[in-house]
Structure formats: C-alpha cells, structure tokens
C-alpha cells in the first residue's frame, strides 16, 4: 500500500470508513476537510488533518505534498449558480487537487456516481450536476496519473461483506451499494494493479457470490488510453 494517502472528504461518512481501513493497514493518512478543526477524533487516531476547500484550492498544496495516493470523495452542492453549484466541487475542485498532486503520485481514486453519462436523469437539473461529474472524471482520466474511477449507485449504511458486489461498465444500471463496500473498493484500488485505468459502477447483488476485490477488478476490461 502506498503511503501517505490523502483522503479529500475523509471526514465524511464514506471517507471515515476509508480512513479506518487505511489506518488498520498501517498507512499514514491525511484528511482534507473544510472543518478540520472539528476532526479531533481523527487526529487522536494519528490522522493529519488539513483545513482546505477544494473550490478555491487554498491549503491543498500542504495536504497533497508527497502523497503517494489520493481518494477524492466530495459531496457537491446542488445550486444552479454561485459557490454551491456542482461545477465548483465536481470539476474545479478535482482539477485543483490534481494540480496540487506531486508528479510521483502513484494512484488517484475518484468517487463519482452512476448516471453520469445519462444527462436526461433528473439529477442534472441541479446545476448540471451529472455533466460536471463527468467532466471531473474526464479530468482524472486525462491527468496522466494512474487512476481508478468508482461510480457508486445509491449509498446505504449496510455493513460491508453481507452480499455480493457487482461491478459494471457502461452506466446503464440502477441499484444500491453500501458505503462500506465503496470504502473497501477505494482502499483496494489504491494498491491493485488490476484497478489502474478502470471506470466502473458498483451495485450490491445478493444473487452473486462475494468475490475478492482483485478478482472483481480483473474481471473488468481495461479502458483504452485517453485518445487511444
Ligand atoms: N448519496 C448517494 O446515494 C451517492 C451515490 C453515488 C455517489 N455519491 C458520492 O459518494 C461520495 C461519498 O458520499 P457520502 O455520503 O459518504 O459523503 P458525505 O458524508 O456527505 O461526505 C462528503 C464530504 O465532502 C466534503 N466536502 C464537501 N464540500 C467540500 C469542499 N468544498 N471542500 C472540501 N471538502 C468538501 C465534506 O467535508 P467537510 O464537511 O469535512 O468539509 C464531507 O466530508 C460523495 O462524493 C457523493 O456525492 C453519493
């Protein structure tokens, strides 16, 4: 596992699960939050917290300096204009974080969403949220960094490992997935060679056997290189 890992959004619900998984593996963890001062519980577990807002990028350089891995999972605003429009977090924020990464970055894991390639979905009525999420994905895929784009379906708080998980490509499905499973996928994607260059959707599926993450990643076809 690469170390340190910066979790942008690591004080959120899925983010905290990722942080816990990383700490359990002995990884040095940094968390970016707009309210780092309130994350005393994370600091007490040895996490370095950084006060930063991805929308303007201030504070990101220190959080990303020398990081070997990044997980980006930021909840967007849904306004049609102003600082809480989705563009600021789902696109500009991604670009700001990519710009602050060191050239030696070994893995960038972006948490996106299903529906991103379905612009007629009602989510897009909120400040073109889906269009901007897709633009953020495109920025990661074009960054030159080894990446994985994870597109969860509807998030639940079920414990991980209860049911099978189905990974898909093509963004045609619908369903749900637990935050714990998304966290596990992100953590494994940070170190799995099979996950490099993958964009996939995630669904819980009681009809399939639980498989190791490496096998799930390897089962997905690799994407063509950008422009290739
Ligand atoms: N809910 C769903 O069904 C669903 C489905 C698919 C994908 N997703 C996506 O999955 C991810 C994880 O979801 P979740 O429910 O676990 O998220 P969450 O608990 O709402 O946490 C999201 C984090 O985003 C951070 N954040 C928001 N704006 C920020 C900014 N301007 N700068 C820095 N950090 C900012 C917040 O950090 P601070 O408040 O600490 O600053 C928060 O910790 C999100 O990206 C979400 O959009 C959700």
Automatic annotation (TrEMBL):
Instruction: Outline the extent of the NAD(P)-binding domain.
Output: 9-193
* Gene3D superfamilies, per the entry: NAD(P)-binding Rossmann-like Domain
Q: Which CDD domains match?
A: SDR_a5 (cd05243)
What InterPro entries does its record include?
Answer: NAD(P)-bd_dom, NAD(P)-bd_dom_sf
PANTHER family, from UniProt? Answer: FLAVIN REDUCTASE-RELATED, UPF0659 PROTEIN YMR090W
UniProt-recorded name of the protein: Uncharacterized protein YbjT (DUF2867 family)
